[in-house]
Amino acid sequence: MENTRKESIGLAATCAIFATFALAMGATAINPAMQSMIQYWAPQGVSINSVRLMNTIPSLAVVVSTIFSGMVVGRRISYKAMAAIGFALFAFFGCLPAVMSSNFTLILVSRAIVGLGIGLVAPLGNTLVMQFFDKNRAAAFIGYGSVVKNIINIIMVWAAGILCIIGWQLTFWVYAIGIVGLIIVLFFMPEPAKAAAPQGTAAKPKRHLDSFVAITAITFFLTMLVAFPVQMNVSTWLDMLGAGTASDAGIVLSVYTLFGMIASLIFGVMFKRFGRYTIPVGYLVGGIGMLLIRFGGSLVPIACGMALAGFGFMFLTPAFFSFIGQRLDPSSRAFAISLSLAALNIGAFLATYYLMGLQAIFGDSYWAVSFLLPAIVYFVLGAIFLVYNPMKGHQESAPREKSAERTVASDNRDCA
User: Fold this and answer.
1) Which residues make beta-bridge pairs with 73?
2) Alpha carbons 146 and 317: distance in angstroms, whole number
3) pLDDT at residue 249 in the model
4) What global pTM score does this model have?
5) Residues contacting residue 10 through CB under 8 Å, at least 6 positions apart
6) Listed range (16-20, 58-62, 165-169, 408-412) with the worst mean pLDDT
7) Side-chain-facing half-sphere of 34: CA atoms under 13 Å
8) Cα dihedral sign for 347, 276, 269, 1?
9) How many other C-beta atoms lie within 10 A of the C-beta of residue 267?
10) 226: CB partners within 8 A, 6+ apart
11) How far is Cα 114 from Cα 89, in angstroms, rounded to an integer?
């Protein structure tokens, strides 16, 4: 059984752990400049879909580097070194197109390397939180990490929008924020103790993954496959309904992010209250939001739907990661989280092809279908997790932990 006494870390080390959450949404920072870049490159013979690769290529790269990071971090490469490499790639190659903007191929290569940097850092935050904090605090801190992720994304997108007014090339300077993260992790990143080898052997502890990791990966893939197009196309949906402008779409997307942050802030409390039912609650709230987006018909109901969708989605990822942390030993968590994040990014990358498939099947009505299917998928997944208990067979751990804590306290009193 895993030792329940956690290593003690200070405020600076905790901030360094939170810094590793910051890169997760970094690939989308250039969204405000996409139309400007399309207008710049189209006369030079670069297709619109090729320009859009700037957004999708990082997702593919994240899949590769996330799995690599989860396999070797804490075993062959330290957490600090992995985080430092990721932040350095993110900052340097993120900013590179700002000074070498005339070479489209170079920009795409740079975007791919940015994705590699994001992927190297992606599994670290959740894993370190589980390593250094007990399960109740870990659930809350995973939620706080999502808040950090959203705040940094808002800052980067806001700054990119301002810089884009001057010139789309300047948009890439927002990746310089990675330098701040690099400095923080170099000086303050804590390094967890290595898992002990089995008694009487010099071998490293074997990595153990159970069925819940596969369930999480499949669920993440399906969720992102149907949910990501809603965020991508909400501006088009508002325009088709005559419900709002591009500016209104920006507000609606901000509402999605804001309520996602609120869900992340209160996640620890709600996870303690709902336990295994946290996942069904997230899907229920998100599914209701998706129905409002599909059938709302005007700006206010659609904005309310986006609020509920953002709230529900931000309940899901920390809930799954919290269950992974409770089910798996420390040596297996980073790899399990990396596989889950890889599945999430594969779903995001394939979302465009999913929409193309819907268009081939449903013709012009595929827009309406694409906004209805997320609600159906959310309700089905919610019903499945209402029956399936992620902690079945693992619920005995809580009493054992309390007993262990009482034993430690008793020993301390005897020593005194």
Assistant:
1) 77
2) 9
3) 67
4) 0.72
5) none
6) 408-412
7) 18
8) negative
9) 27
10) 354, 373, 374, 377
11) 6
